[in-house]
Each structure stands twice: as structure tokens, then as C-alpha cells.
Amino acid sequence: MLLVFTLVVSVLHHQLAHLPVKRVLAHLHAIPARQELAALGFTALSYWLLTTYELLALKYLRRTIPYTRIVFNAFIAYSLSHTLGFSAFTQTAFRLRLYATARVSAIDVAMVSVFCSVSFGIGLATVAGLSLALSPEHAAKLLHLDQRWAMLVGMLLLAAVCAYALWASFARGTLEIRGWALRAPGPAIGLAQIALGVLDISLSCAVLWSLLPAGAHVHYVAFLGVYAAAVIAGIISHVPGGVGVFEAVILLTLPGVPADALLGSLLAYRAVYYVVPFVFGTLLFGSKEVSAQWARRARARELASQYIAPVVPQIAGALSFLSGALLLFSGATPAVDERLAFLERFLPLPVLEVSHLVGSIVGLGLLVLSPALFRRVRAAYHIAVWLLIAGIAASLLKGLDFEEATLLLLVLGVLVLGRRSFYRPTAILDERFTPAWVASVTGVIVLAVWIGLVSHRHLRYPRELWWTFAFDANAPRMLRASLTVVVLGVGYVLLNLLRPARRAPAVAGPDELARARALIEQGDQTLANAALTGDKRLLFSDADDAFLMYQTARRSWIALGDPVGSPRGAEELVWRLREMSDHHGVDTVFYQASRGCLGLYVDLGLAPLKFGEEARVPLADFSLEGARADLREAHRRAQRDGASFEVVPAERVTALLPLLQPISDAWLASKSTAEKRFSVGAFSPQYLRQFPLALLRAGGAPVAFANLWTTGTRAELSVDLMRFDPRAPRSTMDYLFIELMLWGQREGYRWFNLGMAPLAGLESHPLAPAWHRVGNFVFPHGEHFYNFEGLRRYKAKFDPVWEPRYLVARGGIALPRVLVDISVLIAGGMPQSALPVT
């Protein structure tokens, strides 16, 4: 979108290089009232006709809803989505909200949106095809095409429409597309779609056509094709409302019409067809929300806490960014002469000059504060409120800009109504700026400077212009404001990027590890021993009967496994971690979570995704007899090679470490890797001396080892750090695992945990989530990165019981970032985040 918008701006700059802004505004004000009334009439008819799409869609779904309700909902959805852009998403969002009380399901709302979009596309194709086919000479001239090509494109578009009409009228049964079953709408609905689509595009085209200059002499049928092409370009660009793209196409395809007059008509078209319905739609939507909640204040507070409060920071941050851009653009353009003349009679010149400069500085401040508002920073909220108040005053004092002040007042109202959503005490300077945010702010500032230079291109820029102060000195005020904004913006970004990194969070100390070790002895899961690696932070319940281990990476706080300890303490801890991470504006993640705690995680508002399966061997039934011929052969081969096995108690491990260090180094070198973190232990004397050690010798010399994770209840036995000499016999690891299971069986352990097989056991059904489809593709084809399939196949030969393990996090577009954070954390590239410590 940014790339397309940049290209469009460059095209417009080339087209309008010698066009004074005042001439454009003069043509805008010179449009006769009868043309404006005609345009308003066509707009009203067009929006009424849009509501019939909704009526047809609900008829297709066989849903009965009062007609007045349909018209009300459809007008709000279309009037708001046309201006906000991304119609496929914004229309669906507003419909979902508006139809909630009518018990229309989310699937039906999605189908309504798809049906309306298809109807609009059919109408667009029909109009474009008819224009190209019926008036190829005019269309070819306007679109710079050969008449034969124009005729061919038109016929192809009409053929596609005819094909849809035939399918809609005569098809039987359903059409399945990636799990979605679509039935033909029938001739009544299908043909009505085409007719309504043509009328809709024709009426919206008539709005602009009625506003064209009197000397344009553009044939309406030919202009339909131009209009359709401009609309298609705007949709493809994904620029909200097609702003700039639509205008560029119209300007390029109508070179015979004076550019200043045509641009004035386009501005009038934007105001009539977009702004006026948007204002009415906003008022209607707001009145509906207020009236629906006024009589049920208690219920309103509950709904606000559940639905509205979570999105207030996002809305406030976006509106703050847009308000800042509006103030910068306003400061770069000349004020209306009549309003300046009125102010000159009552206002001293210094007040005007200061107000103009303050307005631009306030705009920069709102841009800077927008990411902090996204993250619910309390200080950002208070500063933004005062900046908006200052911006409203500056807008009125610098040029009586009532429209701008009204929009800022609306943004201020949103902030004040959602003030309880901003509770984080973090300082604004503690918020790191992302490259995307820096690029966005830079783009707005550059665009504002470009608008200022274009608006005053007819002026020369002598040195004295910087020090010219007068009521009509718009250009000097623009230059001073632009320089101030650029200097302050660059300085603030450099201050943020070059300041020292914040202190790293503290990991668990000896006292915390001792408290955790007591709880580990009472538990049944060996994964709890991962807390003793010393690279994690530990969170304890108030009753000291449970703990949770976690670490921070980038924008995620990641807990390993479920909480260890009592169920009540576990529930307390997961909520506390959720509150802490929300307090700091980061994501809460649970990695390798079990099925038993999923209900609790879902209550937190998180989504579980199956990440793989854990292999657990029941030791009571384990034996080398029966169908385990491959295990018997590996065991005998290792014994023939002189292998011997022993379990070394923890107190004797320290003396063995000098012999084990070369084995670990050789293993790491053979794998071309470094020590991992977080989910596994590393070769460290402080870590290894805490556990018993399984040792394998060949010819009397150590060739393989693994530290043992145990539980005091003897419910489970597993290994963590496994290393073997690359020159050891091939059956070394099989022998080690077999002997360990037999040893655990003799010692009374109930299960042997072989660990997790990532991406194993994911659903392959066509309706399975997209994550499962991605995992099922990577599982057999990802051997260049990780031997997923081979690892599961190796563990399967021990006949384990497979238990699912989950990644629990906020779903949607946050998932790829969470996966990157986990990978970075395990790889040891970023073991500790630079987030504030709680």
C-alpha cells in the first residue's frame, strides 16, 4: 500500500507540478449549487441501492430481518467502510456488531459481506464491459488503447458476467471451494445482482459526472469506463478509500479537462460521496450504541470491560497518529484567506504565528505518542489529552479551522471515554520504537514537507523569507514549522535509538531455586526440573505451594510447561503472569503446555495450538521380549562391543566432569551447533552436579552420558542433557535408553519420558486449522532444518503413549512473531529481554 501510494504521489506531483492550490480551491467553490444538489441526489440513490445488496444476501441465506433494520445496518456499514478503506474487513466488522442482537451468526455475516462484494464486482465488470464494447472509440481514446483491444477487453468482461448469470440460473447442487459449499443463488437473485450492480456503479459514477466542469464534454457512457477503471485501481491498491489512486487515474485518462478544474470536481466528489455519508453513518452508529446501552448501564460496563476496553488503546493510538498527521498537513497548507482576514481584526500577529508553530509541534507529539497509547501507557494518555486540547486551540487561532478542531475534539472524546484502559506506569522513553513506526513517522513528515512545497511552489525562497512575519505570510510559517518538526523528530528518534539498553531481568537465585526444588520433589512431572537450569525467572504463589518458570524474549513472556504445584496455586500464577505481561504490553505464551490446563489458558483469552506430542513409556510393561526384536538386537550388539551402564549419584558427578567435557565438546562440534537454552539444559558444572547421571562406557572409557530428571513421587523418569562421542558404536543411544528404562523399572518409576516430537500428530483433515496444515507440510519436508519425522520414528520404536503438547498464545497474526521469539530464546541468541522487571 505504501509503495503504491508513493508511486501515486509521484505521478500526481508530476501532473500538478505547476498547479496553484488556490486555483483548485477556486474551482471547487465555483461549482454551481444545482450540480451539488444533483450530486447529493445521486449519492442518496446510490447508498439506498447499496442496501438492496444486503437484502438480496439475506434472502440468499434465507434469513428474515425487518427491512428498516437492513437499510439502517447497510448504510452504516457502507458509509463507514467506504471512507475507512479495507472494505472487506471493515464492512464485516460493522455488520457483525450491528447484527449481533438479531442473532445472525458470524458465518452468515461473512457470507453477507462476500455476497455484497461479489455483487459489486459483477456490477463493476458489467459497466466496464458495456462501456468498452458500446463505445470503444471513446474508451480507447480516454484509456489510450487500440479500439480492437478495448472491444476485446469489454467482450471478455461481459462473457465472465454471462458465465456467472448462467451458473446462478441453471446450476444445481453445490460448488465446494476449500471446504466451503456454495449453492447457486437462482435466476431471481443472480440476475438481480447484475442489474443492481450496474445501477449502483452508474449512480456513483453519475455523482462525479454531475460535478465535472461545464466545459469537460465527456460522454457519460465513455466516462463509465474511466470511472470503473479508477475504482478498480483504487481497490487493487488497498489504499483506504482509494485516495490518490482514484484521482490519479481520472487525471491521467481525462487530459482534455483542465487539471485544476478537474481536481476541484474530484475534491467535491470526495466530500459529497464519502465525507457526507461518513458523518451521517458515524452519528447513526454512535446514536445506536448510546441508545442500546443507556438503559442498561450495568450491562454496558460489563460489555465495555469485555469488548470495548481491549480495543480502546488500538483505536486511540491510530486516531492519535492520524490526528498528528492531520495537524502536520494542515500546517503545511495555506489557510483560507477569508478566515485570516477575519482573524486579523481581532488577533495579534504573534498569537497567529505561535499558534501555527504549536499546531505542527503538537502534530509531531501525537505521532510520537501513538505507539505508547497502543501499549496503554498512562503518561502517554495524559500528555495526549493535553496535546489534543492544545491542538484544538491552535487550529482555531491559526486560521479558524473548525473542521480540524472538530475532528480533534472527537479524538479527545474517545481518549477520555477510554481513560481506564491506560494503566501502565511505564515511562514513555522506555517504549522502544520499531523500524515500522520510525518509517511511518518519517513518511508522514516527508509527505507534509512535500505538501508544503507543492502548495507554495509558485514562490521563490530567498533567505529573507524565513524571517517574514505577516498575516498572509503562509509560506514562511510553513518553512519554520517544517524545519522545527524535522529537527525535533530527528532528535527524538535519535534519543530513543541511542540511549543505553535497560538492565536485563534477574533470573532465579539460590534461594528461589531451593524453594523450587522442594516443590519439584512433590510433583509428578520431570519437566519441572528445567527450573534448576538457572536461566529462568521463577514466579511463586502467595501460599508458596506452586511456582511457574518463564523467561522474556523480545515482545513475549514465555512460560515453560504448566505451573508446578497445587491447582489453586497454578490458577493464581497463570493469571498473575497474564496480568504482568499485559501490564508491560507484551504477549503471554505457554510453551509445551499439557492438555490438563487448557481450560485455564482459554479463560485467559489465549488460543491453544497443538505443537507436537510427548512420548511416555509405561515402565511396568516394558520388556525386550515379544515384538521388540530391533531393540533386543541393538542391546546385544552394544554388549558385544563392550558397553557397560551405570547410574552415578549426584554427589559423585563432579569428579566425572573433566572426563565428560571432551565428549560434550565433540558432540557439539559434530552437530555444528552451540548450547541451547530454556527448554533444555547446557553442559555446566553448576547444573549437572544437581542430578544423577547415566553413564555409558565402552572398553572402560566413558563414551556417552545423560543427566536424569526424577521426581520424589517416582511417577516419572526422563533425561535432559544427552551427549555421546561421535566415534561411539552406532547402538550406543539405544543401549543407553534401554538400560535406563530397565533401571527405572527396578527403582519403581512408573513412566519414562522420551520427550516431545515437534509437529507430530497434527490433524490432516481439510477443515483443520491452518497451523496444522503448515505443520503437516513441514513435518515430512523439513529435514534440512530439523529431523521432525526421524525423531518421532525413533521414539515410536519404544511403543510409547503419545500425549499432546500445546503452544498457548494470542492467535492470529501474532503467532509468527511468537514462534520467532521462542526460537530465539531456545537458541540462546537472546536469553534475557530488555523489558522492565516486575
What does this structure look like?
With 838 residues, this protein is α+β, with helices and mostly antiparallel strands. The chain has 30 helices and 14 strands. Strands 3, 4, 5, 6, 7, 8, 9, 10, 11, 12, 13 and 14 form a 12-stranded mixed sheet that branches. Strand 10 (693-698) and strand 11 (701-710) form a beta hairpin. Helix 3 (33-60) crosses helix 4, helix 14 (312-332) packs parallel to helix 19 (435-455) and helix 16 (349-374) packs parallel to helix 20 (474-498). It is elongated, with a radius of gyration of 34 Å.
Chain-wise SSE layout:
Elements: H1 2-15, H2 21-29, H3 33-60, H4 67-84, H5 87-98, H6 106-134, H7 136-143, H8 147-170, E1 174-177, E2 180-183, H9 187-211, H10 220-237, H11 245-253, H12 259-294, H13 297-308, H14 312-332, H15 337-344, H16 349-374, H17 378-399, H18 402-417, H19 435-455, H20 474-498, H21 510-522, E3 537-540, E4 546-553, E5 556-560, E6 564-565, H22 567-583, E7 587-593, H23 598-603, E8 607-618, H24 629-640, E9 643-648, H25 653-671, H26 685-688, E10 693-698, E11 701-710, E12 716-724, H27 732-747, E13 751-758, H28 770-781, H29 788-796, E14 801-809, H30 814-827
Parallel strand pairs: 5-7, 12-13
Antiparallel strand pairs: 1-2, 3-4, 4-5, 4-6, 7-14, 8-13, 8-14, 9-10, 10-11, 11-12
Helix pairs in contact: 1-11, 2-12, 3-4, 3-6, 3-9, 3-12, 4-5, 4-12, 5-6, 6-7, 6-8, 6-9, 6-10, 7-8, 7-10, 8-9, 9-10, 9-12, 10-11, 14-16, 14-18, 14-19, 16-17, 16-20, 17-18, 19-20, 24-27
